[in-house]
């Protein structure tokens, strides 16, 4: 029998497995995917949002706790547990030396990478390199890893974990960490959560999944049915506006459209529906998937002109290009008259100012609803480009309620040997909204806590058994 069983194969699971092994526990990690797709959504990440009080290696200036907290408070609209959020924030300031010990390397923020040089530490080689480094370290330390092993149910008694099942295979352990992700790849659950809108559409039918196809929520559903305490809204998620041509799964970062703040966005009726310049893109990019999900047909179009070229990370697919705005509307299949009415009204509302995409500048609109608060410049310089957008779900926020111990709770009572980390509990910190890199901060903080606690629980059980 193993001391600690870790269910999942992404960042949170790996952090838990490494911490438990370092604490002296024997560890088995079960990953649902084949080896070549290991790592869950973490393989598509790029960075970790880090608190720091002074410049540090790859991080510029300072990003103190209170500013981090205010950023998180703003994007969540208050839908966050402050104590747990501050735990994550403080943990983000101390985890990088430990990450380096396990082979993770960092690099400075690249030019144009969403104003993140001060707030986010980027992984050299991206999330796939981080995941591979952790797996190499885990295997070197003696963590046993089994791939193609999706867990569908647990053996529980009065809130205590005994074993996990993958089909007919039974895996017993003295303690367990759940880190198997959300339910974003479960289309039926998404349809159930989002229902039918007033237009008779099932919005979830048009969602694309930015991350892994293996996060089906099977274990989360089991835990909910077993009476575990939950938190979060099933419709809330890290949901980004991505290229409508992206693949159904695993599109990752390269399908995200980052030019929204540099132009305007219209729906299929050629109408604007939100302030494209509300705030810096790292604090607002993750609301746009939900905004597009609320539009007719769950589609929208990001429109820019030549002045925006070179100011954003280009997506993998080139946009639709035209020399005139009416030609662009025709190419997009939009009503030309309605499109030109929207563009003319926007252009007329743009006020003279000093454009600065690195600051909350004074380029704004007047008399336009919705307004564009910053970076509002006339769209008048050919060639014009457009990108069709769809909602891209990264991970869902419905999860298991925890406190600072990461223990799963049943009726308010903490399990003595069952813990949870990562996307299965991220809703405690992210009730809604997102800011770049915070998902990795949550997974790293609670993965390390859960692994440590699981090892303590198992080793105490060993002592009791020996006595």
TrEMBL record:
<keyword id="KW-0285">Flavoprotein</keyword>
<dbReference type="InterPro" id="IPR050315">
    <property type="entry name" value="FAD-oxidoreductase_2"/>
</dbReference>
<dbReference type="InterPro" id="IPR003953">
    <property type="entry name" value="FAD-dep_OxRdtase_2_FAD-bd"/>
</dbReference>
<keyword id="KW-0560">Oxidoreductase</keyword>
<protein>
    <submittedName>
        <fullName>FAD-dependent tricarballylate dehydrogenase TcuA</fullName>
    </submittedName>
</protein>
<dbReference type="InterPro" id="IPR012831">
    <property type="entry name" value="CobZ"/>
</dbReference>
<dbReference type="Pfam" id="PF00890">
    <property type="entry name" value="FAD_binding_2"/>
</dbReference>
<dbReference type="InterPro" id="IPR036188">
    <property type="entry name" value="FAD/NAD-bd_sf"/>
</dbReference>
<dbReference type="InterPro" id="IPR027477">
    <property type="entry name" value="Succ_DH/fumarate_Rdtase_cat_sf"/>
</dbReference>
<feature type="domain" description="FAD-dependent oxidoreductase 2 FAD-binding">
    <location>
        <begin position="3"/>
        <end position="429"/>
    </location>
</feature>
<keyword id="KW-0274">FAD</keyword>
């Amino acid at each position: 029998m193993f001391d600690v069983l870790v269910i999942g194969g992404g960042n949170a699971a790996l952090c838990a497995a490494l911490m438990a092994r370092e604490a002296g526990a024997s560890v088995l990690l079960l990953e649902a995917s084949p080896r070549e797709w290991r790592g869950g959504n973490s393989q598509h990440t790029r960075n970790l949002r880090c608190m720091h009080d002074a410049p540090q290696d790859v991080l510029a200036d300072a990003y103190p706790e209170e500013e981090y907290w205010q950023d998180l408070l703003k994007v969540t609209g208050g839908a966050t547990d402050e104590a747990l959020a501050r735990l994550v924030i403080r943990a983000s300031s101390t985890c990088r030396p430990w990450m380096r010990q396990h082979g993770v390397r960092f690099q400075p923020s690249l030019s144009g990478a969403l104003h993140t040089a001060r707030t986010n530490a980027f992984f050299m080689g991206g999330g796939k390199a981080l995941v591979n480094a952790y797996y190499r370290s885990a295997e070197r330390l003696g963590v046993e890893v089994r791939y193609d092993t999706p867990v569908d149910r647990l053996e529980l008694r009065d809130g205590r974990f005994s074993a996990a099942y993958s089909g007919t295979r039974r895996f017993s352990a003295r303690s367990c960490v759940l880190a198997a992700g959300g339910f974003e790849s479960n289309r039926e659950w998404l349809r159930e959560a989002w229902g039918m809108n007033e237009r008779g559409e099932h919005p979830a039918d048009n969602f694309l999944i930015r991350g892994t196809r293996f996060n089906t929520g099977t274990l989360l559903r089991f835990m909910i049915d077993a009476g575990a305490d939950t938190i979060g809204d099933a419709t809330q998620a890290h949901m980004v506006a991505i290229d409508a041509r992206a693949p159904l799964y695993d599109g990752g970062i390269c399908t995200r459209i980052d030019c929204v703040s540099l132009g305007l966005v219209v729906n299929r009726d050629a109408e604007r529906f939100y302030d494209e310049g509300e705030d810096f893109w790292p604090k607002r990019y993750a609301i746009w998937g939900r905004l597009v999900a609320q539009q007719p047909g769950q589609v929208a179009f990001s429109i820019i002109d030549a002045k925006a070229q070179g100011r954003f990370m280009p997506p993998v697919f080139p946009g639709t290009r035209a020399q005139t705005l009416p030609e662009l509307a025709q190419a997009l299949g939009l009503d030309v008259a309605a499109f030109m009415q929207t563009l003319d009204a926007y252009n007329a509302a743009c006020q003279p100012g000093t454009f600065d995409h690195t600051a909350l500048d004074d380029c704004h609109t007047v008399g336009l609803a919705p307004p564009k608060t910053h970076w509002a410049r006339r769209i008048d310089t050919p060639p014009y480009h457009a990108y069709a957008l769809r909602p891209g779900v990264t991970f869902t926020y419905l999860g298991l309620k925890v406190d600072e111990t990461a223990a799963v709770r049943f009726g308010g009572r903490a399990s003595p040997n069952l813990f949870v980390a990562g996307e299965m509990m991220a809703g405690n910190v992210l009730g809604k909204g997102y800011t770049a890199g915070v998902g990795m901060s949550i997974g790293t903080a609670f993965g390390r806590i859960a692994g440590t606690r699981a090892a303590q629980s198992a080793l105490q059980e060993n002592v009791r058994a020996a006595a």
